[in-house]
Amino acid sequence: MTPRQIRMGLAAAAVIAVSTAANLLLMQPREMRSPRPDRPYRGLSELPGTPSTTIGAVGSVVRETTAVRVETPVANTNDDADANAADLIRVVQQALADRNYAPGNTSGSLDMVTRAAIMAFENDRGLILTGEPTLELLAELRSEAPNQRSGRVTGRQSEHAEAVVRAVQQSLSMLKYQPGVADGLVGDATANAIRAFERDHGLPQSGRVSGRLVTRLSELAGRGQLASR
Predict the structure, then answer these.
(1) What is the pLDDT of residues 148-207, one digit of tens each?
(2) What is the dihedral angle through the alpha carbons of 45, 37, 160, 166, rounded to the nearest 10 degrees?
(3) What 8-state DSSP symbol labels residue 61?
(4) How far is residue 188's CA from residue 186's CA, in Å, rounded to a whole number?
(5) Distance set, CA 195 to CA 46, 79, 108, 135, 187 (Å)
(6) Fewer CB within 10 Å, N or C, the chain?
(7) Exposure string for 9-36, b = 16+ CB within 10 A, e = fewer
(8) Coil, helix or strand for 96?
(9) Torsion region of 122: left, alpha or beta (phi above 0 gives left; psi -120 to 50 gives alpha)
């Protein structure tokens, strides 16, 4: 083989190698090249009075969307604890999804839709509304005991639950559903406004905060159908 033939062979091999690498990169599934968004809905951050919209793990708080209160990220002090918290959120979300409570995602990202789904289950179970993914909640989700709700649940709600209710109340008010004062409590006016919204948007009429309700409100906000504050 002549030197010229050797050079031509090496050049051809190089071209083939580059082409193969390019094809592998271009033809592999899209989800392997770039991460997909956690949430299948848009506009969550546009809801009025929204608390921090995403908490990936303990101590990693995303900036809030209103000027009322803004929290800065907190440095993680225990990576194992953060991982365990995210795992718990993920398991709770899957349990909610299995019970058809529409948590929005099952990736371990704790947002307002997941909190609203937790609150819907707590409401149906006769529990005080917290919106918190806890081991106690997981035990309830895994229990075969029937729901024990008898009328509206009374008791001190958590700060997170009240923030979710206020966001729903302010959103419904912007849509002219007259939920009453945005006090973070689901009274008669708020329950009636939720039922009217659910009826108009083809949702089961429950009169309670739920993952489906917050998802639908966030979709409207994403399309600019909720006026900005």
Answers:
(1) 765 555 567 999 999 999 999 999 999 999 999 999 999 999 999 999 999 999 999 999
(2) 30
(3) B
(4) 7
(5) 22, 42, 30, 31, 12
(6) N
(7) eeeeeeeeeeeeeeeeeeeeeeeeeeee
(8) helix
(9) alpha
